[in-house]
Protein: F5/8 type C domain-containing protein
Amino acid sequence: PWADIGEFVFIDHERVSGSIRPFETELTHNLISSMRSRGGDIGTILNNYTIPQDWSDGGYEWIIDGDSTTAFIHPPRIQILGGGGGYWTVPMFFDLGAPFLVERIRFATRPDHPENQMRRYILFLNDGTEATKDRVGNLVWKKYREEIDNLESVVDLDIEPQQVRHIYIRPGGIGTNNGLSQTWEVAEVQVFGRGFVPTAEYTSEPIDLGAPSALGKIRWGWQLDPGGQINIQTRTGVDDQPYVYWRVTGVADELSPLDQRGRPLTKEDYESIKPNQRGGVTDDLTNWSPWQTYDLDRGLAGTPILSPSPR
Structure:
């Protein structure tokens, strides 16, 4: 029922029946293999006309299929436009679906084709936080490693443990001598980390009581490891939209909660407009009360709902 009446942010609602918990991983688990279950995926950041047909036809699936005998194979492709002399590449972008404490990144050729190693590459990382995006929401990449003469068919990198959500592998270097004049391939990309995601959140949809009602007690059960923290909060309101969605109008720094027809923006409206037109989301404090926080230890016995009622 958790998924039916609320929204998850980095929450696992399947591992323990009837409960919710932050995403967790172990060093033996390849995060690439489960990224789609968390809303992540693999892609590229080039326009389609520069991508080999094999990739466009789904060849990228061979990189994440868990089978070391299949691979995305990239033959030399000389760049004729723009003066020639360079070779096209296919930057590979991975969204793990949540930020994890990553300690190891590995990619390899097929075992029987070690000669197809990626001779040059650049590895970029991003933790997925708002602080590592630009003003229109684009990721700002941090270069972690640049290899100019790789002779290994299996690249196995021990990463200084750090929070990572997005990984960008750029085969080849910069310029004409970029290491792409020969065939290269990737059979599998693997990412390993340990522990829980740093934060997770579950927010229920507004619960319609059918009529203004006096509220009684709220109860919950929990389990908390040392060093962890759980916040339980409630708010009450008079309508079904507890947030205000803001739109950038383009007039100086003006923001408006209305669409171009003068109607209040809904969540669906907000998500449909371009990222650079989104002005942010704030709590509706006109029709809804502020969040009230509860003492975690009082959950089993029950504690009076602090938010105002009847609502």
About this structure: The chain has two domains: 6-196, 210-304. The longest strand covers residues 154-171.
